[in-house]
Amino acid sequence: MASHLPTGSSASQQQSGAAEMTSDTHHSGPTGLMRWLLTTNHKEIGTLYLLFSLAMFFIGGLFAMVVRAELFQPGLQLVQPEFFNQMTTMHGLIMVFGAVMPAFVGLANWMVPLQIGAPDMALPRLNNFSFWLLPVAFTMLLATLVMPGGAPNFGWTFYAPLSTTYAPPSTTFFIFSLHLAGISSILGAINIIATILNLRAPGMRMMDMPLFVWTWLITAFLLIAVMPVLAGVITMMLLDIHFGTSFFNAAGGGDPVLFQHLFWFFGHPEVYIMILPAFGIVSVIIPTFARKRLFGYASMVYATASIAILSFLVWAHHMFVVGLPLTAELFFMYSTMLISVPTGVKVFNWITTLFRGSLTFEPPMLFALAFVVLFTIGGFSGLMLAISPADFQYHDTYFVVAHFHYVLVPGAVFAIMAAVYYWLPKWTGHYPHLRLSQWHFWLSVVGVNLTFFPMHFAGLAGMPRRIPDYSLQFADFNMITSIGGFLFGLSQLLFVLVVVLCVRGGRKAPAQAWEGAEDLEWTVPSPAPLHTFETPPDFTPYRH
Amino acid sequence: MSGGSYYVPASSKWPILACLALGGMMLGTGMLLVYGASGMPIMMAGLVGVLLVMALWFRDVVLESRKGLYDEQMDRSFRWGMGWFIFSEVMFFAAFFGALFYIRIFALPWLDGEGAKGVAALLWPDFTASWPLLEPPGTDVQGPSSTLSPWHLPLVNTLILVGSSITLTVAHEGLKEGQRRVVKNWLGLTVLLGLCFIAIQGIEYREAYLHYGITLDAGIYGATFFLLTGFHGAHVIIGTLILAVMLVRVLRGHFAPDDQFGFEAAAWYWHFVDVVWIGLFLFVYVF
Description:
Chain A has helices spanning 10-22, 32-38, 42-70, 81-116, 124-143, 171-198, 211-242, 256-273, 276-290, 297-310, 326-338, 340-354, 363-386, 388-394, 398-428, 434-460, 475-504. By secondary structure, chain A is mainly alpha-helical. Chain A is globular and about 65 Å long. Chain B folds into two domains: 9-69, Helix Hairpins; 73-286, Up-down Bundle (Four Helix Bundle (Hemerythrin (Met), subunit A)), CATH 1.20.120. Chain B contains seven helices and no strands. The longest helix of chain B is centred in the N-terminal third of the chain and has 40 residues, at 72-111. At the A-B interface, helix 1, helix 5, helix 6, helix 7 and helix 8 of A face helix 1, helix 2, helix 3 and helix 6 of B.
């Protein structure tokens, strides 16, 4: 092979590449920082994604703490309204684009190749590129906090003209950081699709894939379909701000409502991007600890696909009060309600999987069960919001805040934590500390419900979101919410402690770390060696 | 790479450098737009970096391909990757077409008092909707003085681009049959047609700006016109560059009838750009 090498500067690099290909278990590439900067290994990149996401979870969480501290009592206490707006905006942006999405991509990086018996992602260098775009993007986004005029202050939905005509100068950098994060998502999604479609172990058909793989395949499709629309709409913002176009300016013949249509055409599939992989995780964990096959595997797949297709047809339910034609109000109300059918199928299947199972309640199972219960609460409040006439009352109140935090925190975030507890033995070779994990779980459950449940009442009574002050009658609800928020925030430090302890030591985990687990990742040693499945594994399909 | 084992590419310094260059380019562009000329050098450095890294990264991939490191499985990964990338581009343009249709079907008639939300006419009672919109509602926005005829330069460009898709297909068939002279001639012709398209588009832009008053700030017609044709034009430039690279590779003896995905991917991209133009010609120029 070396005899064909071209002369010149790339020769040495080619050679080291050839050496790496033939090495099996030990790492022959660069070491130290360079190892992480240059890595093309799916496990290392997965770890980077997860650590990045954890860091963003705490930064976004810190912003939420500022919001809750300000809202602890009525009146202006700690921060100026301008800064409060920056905090709510940055909290949303960081959590959505920096914490939840990268966490799921990190889990996909680690686990999709292991679950389908592939040696790595299909396009490993692209994978490295996708990850390292994120620190660049979010450094730029966080830097807006210290720019003249402050950070973006128009809410995470950045509606025009707040984000164009009336926006701070830093909005331009916000747009570019979102472009970078979007490129990262699209390329990451392309990689995941190529991996799943092309690198499955011989004999593994599509309908043999673990549900986590299935949900990620569909999520990746959603990402590729809607992230470019986001790129398009922020490009139009940029043109409106700097080049005198009038896309979102009615005086020139444009329309600010056009912004909302484009944004939510991206935004609604985006919320499913943040929940479908969570469905996959829960669908993998519940059968393991119920020691039963997943009930209704095929219907789970079809339900996921149905949710994905419907997600393109419901976007204007975020805009019921903006002044839509009656036909649109009705169409988007009914199409939104339709989503509860496949979602109901999923909840039914999880509960039926539990029925007469041999249940045990290890930490991953605790989080998965809490997910089923609490996500369903968020689903029901979503059904209430889908009713267009009722939404005229709920719109832009804390009821909406309660709804989407129920699906995102005890929904998406709990699923991520369930996944971390489930796969930590595979990643580190140790079980997480049981007592501490249980403390983390129970404090999180109590904290989450204390934080978000009272918001329903405050919202129904008319408390508007995104305002740093409120009427006196909301004082008790807000104090409870703030206390719950601080409790939830602090208990996440326990999570870090558990992870750190688990990396450093703990009870040794065998390859088959959970007795009821059945997927391919449990056939490789714990901790998983750097390179796995360099030759395709034997896969015997189970007829679902 | 036989024996049933997978091919796992070596680590590379290009991705991380690409991140830094791209980040620098965007930071510089932002600084240029917000703070003025101080951002220019950073933007240019970033741009040069991006182009350089792309060239070197692709060079590595070409070299690895020439060494025969890529097996059929890798080839399929590339195919899926390119296919889904083009799908993402389709959605990017879909957003812009969606905006165009929304403005024309809903927003403007409403501003004129027609339709379900005709109450919007209260804003500018004297406004009359039309497309192309020569007189925007606001008095502070100066509309275009007249519109471009689709049957002059745009028609020529349509023929050029559709023709280039045909010449490219002839070249591709030649490649699959191993007739290298056919490939060279017809691919060269395709690149030439691409260059012609870009030049004519440039002439049209000049006319639009100087003689027709169609500018970025001439209300929603100018905005959608330049948004759609501008991003399409950028894609034609990129496509022409890709095809030019393919031409160089063909001249150097790369590709074989059964080993030509780089060429095929370039062809996919070019056909996609062509299809977008058909949509543009119909909905931006003709109707």
